[in-house]
Design a protein that fits this description.
Elements: E1 2-8, E2 17-22, E3 26-31, H1 40-52, H2 56-59, E4 62-66, E5 74-80, H3 83-96, H4 98-101, H5 107-127, H6 136-150, E6 158-168, E7 171-180, E8 183-190, E9 193-200, E10 204-210, E11 218-223, E12 226-231, H7 236-254, H8 257-260, H9 274-290, E13 300-308, E14 313-321, E15 325-330, E16 337-341, E17 345-349, E18 358-362, E19 366-371, H10 376-387, H11 398-408, H12 431-435, H13 445-464, E20 471-472, H14 474-482, H15 489-497, H16 499-505, H17 509-517, H18 523-531, H19 545-561, H20 571-581, H21 584-598, H22 608-624, H23 626-631, H24 636-648, H25 656-669, H26 671-684, H27 686-691, H28 695-708, E21 709-710, E22 736-737, H29 738-749, H30 754-783, H31 793-809, H32 815-818, E23 831-832, H33 834-844, H34 855-864, E24 872-873, H35 874-886, H36 889-899, H37 911-915, H38 921-935, H39 941-953, E25 965-966, H40 967-981, H41 987-1014, H42 1018-1027, E26 1031-1032, H43 1034-1042, H44 1045-1052, H45 1057-1073
Parallel strand pairs: 21-22
Antiparallel strand pairs: 1-5, 2-3, 3-4, 4-5, 6-7, 6-12, 7-8, 8-9, 10-11, 11-12, 13-14, 13-19, 14-15, 15-16, 16-20, 17-18, 18-19, 23-24, 25-26
Helix pairs in contact: 7-9, 7-30, 15-21, 16-21, 17-19, 18-19, 19-20, 19-21, 20-21, 22-24, 22-26, 22-30, 25-26, 26-29, 31-33, 31-45, 33-45, 40-41, 41-43
C-alpha cells in the first residue's frame, strides 16, 4: 500500500528493522519478529509496539523507504502485509521510477519528484473509494491492520476504529477496537500475549453502557453467554452510538427483514460509513421527537433564539431543518417546540442584520422570529429554495407587522388542520358526530364542564396558535392531562401524531387505496371480516352498517398499503376508537402513524415491538417499584398481563369513555404515556398485589381495578358508554376517576424521559429478538427425528444459521435473503442455496469427498432438496448428515447409490442446477426469483397441511424400490468410493476391495448375459449384445460390498462429531474468505 511520504528518523531504527533490498534511492525493510528467524525478545517488544502505536509504518511487517545518497533523511512511501505485496511495489519502482530519476541534477528534485508521484498514486487509488473518510491516510492504515489481523473476506467494510482496553477477566488488554459492517473485532499484542476477538453483530444479546467500582464507564457486550467489557475510550458515547447502529442494522437485515426494507439509508452493506451511521442516528432521533414521516432526514442544525409571543421573551434552542420541515426545540427547560411544514411558509425575511435574525411567515397570518442565527443568510436562502420563494423587497416591512398583528389579533389565527379538499373521502364525518351529536342547549353539569374545557383550549389556541405550526409547551400537556373536549379530539390527535402532515402531502391517496382494495380477497381481508363485529360491539356506531363499513374500508386499505403487516388483531379495536372521533380518511392516517411510527413493529407476525416495550416496562418496574420487585421476583407475570395494555392502549381493559383519555396522552407523549400509566396502575394496587398468593389472584385484582375506573366528566350518554368488561358490581370496589389516575401518573413518573425510553427500547430489542430466535430454535430442534446428531443439533443449527447469514453479509441480492418468507414454518426460515450449501457440507461431511462447488456436491444438493425448490432447509440438511454420520452400513451405501441416480446425477430438466456454475450471480438471482415466484401464489393452507400429513405418514423406502444403476452411473459410483477412501491409512486395501467388487459384479453380469443368450435365438443375439448396456441393482452392489470386511469396517467406523463441529467452527468464515 502506498503511503503519504513522511519523514522518519533512522538513528535507532536499525534495531527494529532488517534491510532486505536496497539501491541508490530506495530501501526495502522487514520488521524484526516477522518472517524468518522469529526475532526472540526483540520480536516480542516490536510486536507490542506495533499493537499499541497508531502508525502503519510501525505496524506493517514490510516497508519501502526513499532516500538520496547525499542526505540522511529517509521518507516512508509504501508498506505491505506480505512479502509478495511489498515486492510488487518494489518492482514497480524499479521499472517506472529508477530510469527517470537519473535525469535529475539535485537530490531535492529527486525527492520532490518521488513524493509527487507517490501522492499521485494515492490520489488515483482514492478515486476508486466509494466514500472518503475524515482522514483517508489514517483510515487506510487502519484498514490494512484490520485485514492483516482478522483475515475477513475482502468485501467486509471497516466502518471505524478506536483505541481502548478490553477486560479479559480482571486484567485489561490495551489494543484496538474495529467496527465493521458485520463484525465487532478487537486486537491486542502485549509482550507475546495476543488477544484476538471477532463477534458478528447478529450474535449480540446485550449492548449497553455500564459503570462500576473498577470501570468508571465502559461498554458491555453479551454474546454466546460471555460478557465482554471495553473501557478507556476517548469518545465512549460516539463509539456506543456507532455500535448500537451497526447492531440494529444487522438485526433488521438478518432477522427482522420486514422493517429493514423501510431503511433506505442502510440498503447496501458496502456503502455504510461512520458518518452515514451518525447521520442516520440523528435523523431517527429527529423524526421521533417531532413525529415526522420516515422519509425526512435531518439536514441542518442551527442554534438560535425564538421569540415566543405568548411569553414575550426569547427562548434558546435549535433550528432543525429537513427536506420538508422547519422545526425548533427549546433547550432552556421550557419544553417548547414548534413544527413548521415548508408548504405553510409564505415568506422568509431578514429584518435585522445586526442581530442576525430572520422571520418566517406562515399561512394563517403568523410569523416566527429567529435571532442570533450564526449563518442566518444561508439558512434563509435554503428555506426560500425549499419553499420555492424568491426574495422580494416589498415584503421587508411586513414581517414585524405580521408578528404584532398576531399578538394583537389572536382571533385571526385560522385552523390549519384539514385544509386539503377531503370531498373524495368515503365518509366525511366522525362517527361520534353522527351517533351522538352535541346538544348546544343542554346545560347539565357535565356539558357545562365540557364547554369550559373547550373554552380553555380556545384560549390556548389564541395564545399559542392553532394547527400545524402551533407551539407545544408545558401548558399544552397540562390541558391534555385534564382531558380533551369531545369536539376537538380528532383534530388534536391528527396534530399531535403528525398524521395531519401525512394526509396533507398525500391528497386522494386514501380514496385510491379504497378503490384498489375493494373486492380483493386475501388472508388479511378474511381476518378483517371475522373481527368486524367484535370491535366495540356495544357502541351504537358499530351496531350499524355505517360504522362497520367505515371500519372495513380503513382496515382493508391499510392491509393493501402495507402487506408486510396486513392485519393484526387489536388493530380493529384501535381503529374503531379512531373512527369515533376522526373522519374516515383521518382515521386511516392516524392508523398509519400508530403502526409505522409511534408503535414500530407492534403489528407484525411476532409483535416484536410490544415485547420490547414490555421489557422496557419491566426495567421501569425494577427502578420505580422496588417493593413490588421484592415480593414478585419474576416480573414476566406483568409482561403477560400488560400485553393487551400496550397493543390496544388500554382500550381493551378500560371503558371507552375512560380509554379515550389515555389515547389523548398517547398521541401527545407516545409510548411514554402508556408506560407511566402502567406504573401508576401497579402503584395504586401495590398493597393488594403484594398480599396475593398466586398469579390468578393478581389478575383478578387488576381486572376489578379496571372495572372500577370511570370518567366522571364524560358527556356521553349511558347508551354510548361502554359497559364494564368484567365484574359489573362496581360497589364492591371504590371507583377511580381516569383523570385523577392520569394526573397521578404524570406527577409520580413524569420524569421518565422519552430519550431514555428510546435508548431502553434499542437495548432490549437485541435481547428480545435473540430470545425469540433461541426459543423457536429449541422447538425446532426438539421436533427433528434424528438419532446421531441429536445432541449436536443446537450447534449444528448455529452453523447452518451462520452460513445463511454469511450469504447475506456482503450482498443485498442473496437468494436466501430475498426469498425470506415469514409465513413459512421456522424450519424453512433459514435456507441455503447451492454455493452456501457446498461450503458448509464440505466442512461437515465425514469423509472429505465433496469439495466446494464440485459436481458431487451438486448431486448431494439435488438429492436432499426434497421439494426441488433450489434451497436446502435445516431439516433436509440434518437428515443427510444423520445418515452419513451414524446411519447403518446399508443406509450409508443407499445414500451413495441414490447420489448417482436422478435427481442427483441428472442433467436437463432442472435448469437451475445445469447453469449453477455458468450463470453470473445477477442472472442466477433473476432465474431463482422466477422459480420461486412462479411456484408460489396465494398460500393454500389445505395443501400445506396435506404435505405435512404425507410427510408424517411417509414409509421408509425399501431397497427393492431403488432403480438399477447403469454403466456410466456405476463407473462414477466407483470413482466416488475411491474419493472417499483417498487419504485413509487403509487406502491401498480399500482400493483393492473396490477393484475386487467391480470385477465380481462384471463377472456376475457376464454370467447373466450368457444365461440370457441361451434362451434367445442366435439371430437376435448379436444385435442384443451390441445394443444392451449392463446395469446392477442395489441388492447386487450391497451383497458384493458386504463381502469386503475392509469396506464394511470403514463405513461402520464411528465419526467424532464433536471434533468435526469444532473444526468447522474455525474454518467456516475462512472458507468464505478463501472463496
Amino acid at each position: 500500500m502506498w503511503l503519504k511520504p513522511e519523514e522518519i528518523l533512522l538513528k535507532n531504527a536499525f534495531k527494529l528493522w532488517v534491510t532486505e533490498k536496497d539501491n541508490e534511492y530506495f530501501v526495502l525493510q522487514r520488521r524484526r519478529g516477522y518472517g524468518e528467524g522469529g526475532g526472540g525478545l526483540t520480536g516480542l517488544l516490536v510486536g507490542t509496539l506495533d499493537t499499541v502505536l497508531d502508525s502503519t509504518s510501525k505496524v506493517a511487517p514490510y516497508r519501502i523507504l526513499h532516500h538520496t545518497p547525499d542526505s540522511q533523511v529517509y521518507w516512508s512511501i509504501a508498506c505491505g502485509v506480505t512479502k509478495e505485496e511489498i515486492v510488487q511495489h518494489w518492482d514497480w519502482l524499479q521499472q517506472n521510477i529508477m530510469r527517470t530519476l537519473s535525469v535529475f541534477d539535485s537530490s531535492e528534485d529527486v525527492t520532490s519528484f518521488v513524493q509527487g508521484k507517490i501522492r499521485g498514486l494515492i490520489a488515483e487509488e482514492g478515486k476508486t473509494c466509494l466514500v472518503q473518510e475524515d482522514d483517508p491516510e489514517k483510515f487506510r492504515e487502519a484498514h490494512l491492520r484490520f485485514e492483516k489481523w482478522f483475515e475477513l473476506p475482502p468485501g467486509e467494510k471497516l466502518v471505524t476504529y478506536y483505541s481502548c482496553s478490553y477486560w479479559k477477566g480482571k486484567v485489561p488488554c490495551q489494543g484496538w477496537l474495529y467496527l465493521s459492517t458485520n463484525f465487532l473485532c478487537f486486537y491486542s499484542y502485549l509482550l507475546g500475549a495476543e488477544v484476538k476477538l471477532v463477534i458478528s453483530w447478529d450474535e449480540l444479546w446485550r449492548l449497553e453502557k455500564t459503570s462500576n467500582v473498577i470501570l468508571t464507564e465502559s461498554i458491555h457486550v453479551l454474546a454466546h453467554g460471555e460478557d465482554h467489557y471495553f473501557s478507556m475510550l476517548m469518545h465512549l458515547n460516539e463509539t456506543f452510538v456507532i455500535m448500537e447502529q451497526l447492531a440494529d442494522y444487522s438485526i433488521k437485515r438478518l432477522f427482522d427483514k420486514e422493517s429493514f426494507q423501510r431503511e433506505p439509508a442502510l440498503s447496501d452493506p458496502l456503502q455504510i460509513t461512520k458518518r452515514g451511521l451518525e447521520a442516520n442516528a440523528k435523523s431517527e432521533q429527529f423524526r421521533t421527537f417531532f413525529r415526522l414521516p420516515k422519509e425526512e432526514n435531518l439536514l441542518e442544525v442551527h442554534e438560535s433564539f425564538l421569540w415566543v409571543p405568548f411569553s414575550h421573551f426569547n427562548t434558546l434552542g435549535k433550528i432543525c431543518l429537513s427536506e420538508n420541515y422547519l422545526c425548533f426545540a427549546s433547550q432552556d427547560g421550557s419544553q417548547c417546540h414548534v413544527i413548521i411544514p415548508m408548504r405553510e411558509v409564505v415568506n422568509v425575511e431578514k429584518p435585522d442584520s445586526s442581530s442576525r435574525a430572520l422571520t418566517v411567515c406562515v399561512r394563517g397570518k403568523r410569523a416566527l422570529r429567529f435571532s442570533e442565527v450564526r449563518d442566518y443568510q444561508r439558512l434563509a436562502n435554503t428555506i426560500r429554495s425549499r419553499c420555492g420563494i424568491n426574495a422580494s423587497p416589498q415584503h421587508s416591512a411586513s414581517s414585524e407587522s405580521l408578528i404584532n398583528h398576531f399578538e394583537d389579533n389572536p382571533e385571526d389565527v385560522t385552523l390549519m388542520v384539514g385544509q386539503k379538499d377531503s370531498s373524495k373521502a368515503v365518509s366525511t364525518e366522525a362517527l361520534m358526530t353522527v351517533f351522538h351529536p352535541q346538544d348546544v342547549e343542554n346545560l347539565d353539569p357535565k356539558m357545562l364542564k365540557e364547554k369550559m374545557k373547550e373554552q380553555s383550549w380556545n384560549i390556548h389556541f389564541s395564545e399559542y396558535g392553532r394547527g400545524t405550526s402551533m407551539f407545544f409547551t408545558r401548558k399544552t400537556r397540562d390541558l391534555i392531562v385534564r382531558g380533551v373536549p369531545e369536539a376537538l379530539r380528532g383534530e388534536l390527535w391528527m396534530l399531535f401524531s403528525g398524521a395531519v402532515n401525512d394526509m396533507a402531502t398525500h391528497p386522494g391517496y386514501y380514496t385510491e387505496l379504497v378503490e384498489q382494495s375493494l373486492g380483493t380477497s386475501t388472508l388479511a381481508t378474511d381476518e378483517i371480516e371475522r373481527d368486524l363485529h367484535r370491535s366495540l360491539p356495544e357502541h351504537p356506531a358499530f351496531q350499524s352498517d355505517t360504522g362497520i363499513s367505515a371500519l372495513r374500508r380503513v382496515l382493508t386499505a391499510y392491509a393493501y398499503r402495507n402487506p408486510k403487516i396486513g392485519y393484526c388483531q387489536a388493530m380493529n379495536i384501535l381503529t374503531s376508537v379512531l373512527l369515533l372521533y376522526a373522519k374516515e380518511e383521518e382515521a386511516f392516517w392516524l392508523l398509519v402513524a400508530v403502526c409505522e411510527r409511534m408503535l414500530p413493529d407492534y403489528f407484525n407476525r411476532r409483535i416484536i415491538g410490544a415485547l420490547v416495550d414490555q421489557a422496557v416496562f419491566e426495567d421501569l418496574i425494577r427502578e420505580n417499584l422496588p417493593q413490588l420487585v421484592e415480593h414478585m421476583t419474576d416480573l414476566s407475570f406483568f409482561s403477560s398481563v400488560s400485553l393487551s395494555w400496550f397493543l390496544t392502549l388500554f382500550i381493551s381493559v378500560l371503558p371507552i369513555e375512560s380509554a379515550v383519555n389515555v389515547v389523548d396522552c398517547f398521541f401527545y407523549d407516545g409510548i411514554k404515556a402508556i408506560l407511566q400509566l402502567g406504573l401508576a396502575v401497579l402503584d395504586y394496587n401495590m398493597e393488594a398485589l403484594i398480599s396475593c398468593h398466586d398469579d390468578a389472584e393478581a389478575v383478578t385484582i387488576l381486572n376489578k381495578f379496571f372495572d372500577s375506573v370511570t370518567n366522571k366528566d364524560s358527556p356521553l350518554p349511558p347508551t354510548v358508554q361502554q359497559a364494564s368488561v368484567g365484574n359489573n358490581d362496581k360497589a364492591s370496589h371504590i371507583s377511580v376517576d381516569i383523570s385523577e389516575l392520569i394526573r397521578e401518573a404524570y406527577e409520580k413518573y413524569g420524569n421518565i424521559r422519552s430519550e431514555e425510553v428510546e435508548s431502553s427500547r434499542k437495548r432490549n430489542k437485541l435481547y428480545v429478538i435473540q430470545t425469540l430466535e433461541d426459543t423457536t430454535k429449541q422447538n425446532v430442534v426438539s421436533k427433528l427425528r434424528v438419532t446421531s446428531t441429536g445432541v449436536m443439533l443446537p450447534s449444528l443449527f448455529i452453523y447452518f444459521q451462520r452460513q445463511h447469514f454469511l450469504s447475506c453479509y456482503w450482498t443485498m441480492n442473496s437468494p436466501a435473503l430475498l426469498h425470506h418468507d415469514p409465513s413459512l414454518a421456522y424450519l424453512e426460515q433459514y435456507q441455503l442455496g447451492f454455493q452456501q450449501f457446498s461450503m458448509l457440507f464440505s466442512l461437515l461431511e465425514p469423509w472429505a469427498f465433496c469439495s466446494i462447488k464440485s459436481t458431487l456436491s451438486l448431486w448431494v444438493f439435488r438429492l436432499i432438496d426434497e421439494n426441488q425448490d433450489g434451497l436446502i432447509n435445516f431439516k433436509e440438511f440434518c437428515c443427510a448428515l444423520d445418515t452419513l454420520y451414524t446411519g447403518s452400513f446399508t443406509n450409508k451405501l443407499k445414500f451413495l447409490f441414490k447420489l448417482h441416480l436422478p435427481p442427483g446425477n441428472k442433467s436437463g430438466p432442472k435448469l437451475y442446477f445445469a447453469l449453477v456454475d455458468s450463470l453470473s450471480p445477477l442472472s442466477l438471482l433473476s432465474f431463482h426469483l422466477s422459480i420461486k415466484l412462479s411456484g408460489r401464489g396465494k398460500v393454500d393452507l389445505q395443501a400445506y397441511l396435506k404435505q405435512w400429513q404425507n410427510e408424517i405418514l411417509k414409509k421408509e423406502e425399501s431397497i427393492k424400490d431403488l432403480p438399477r444403476i447403469n454403466q456410466t452411473q456405476f463407473i462414477q459410483f466407483s470413482k466416488t468410493l475411491y474419493n472417499i477412501f483417498h487419504g485413509d491409512p487403509e487406502e491401498e486395501l480399500l482400493y483393492r476391495a473396490v477393484a475386487h467388487v467391480t470385477s465380481l459384479l462384471l463377472r456376475m453380469e457376464e454370467v447373466g448375459r450368457r444365461l440370457q443368450d441361451s434362451d434367445t435365438s442366435s439371430s437376435h443375439n448379436s444385435q442384443d449384445l451390441s445394443e444392451t448396456e449392463w446395469s446392477f441393482s442395489f441388492e447386487q452392489v450391497l451383497a458384493s460390498l458386504l463381502n469386503e470386511p475392509a469396506i464394511v469396517s470403514f463405513f461402520e467406523r464411528p465419526v467424532d462429531i464433536q471434533t468435526k463441529l469444532g473444526l468447522a467452527k474455525v474454518a467456516q468464515l475462512k472458507s468464505k474468505t478463501n472463496k
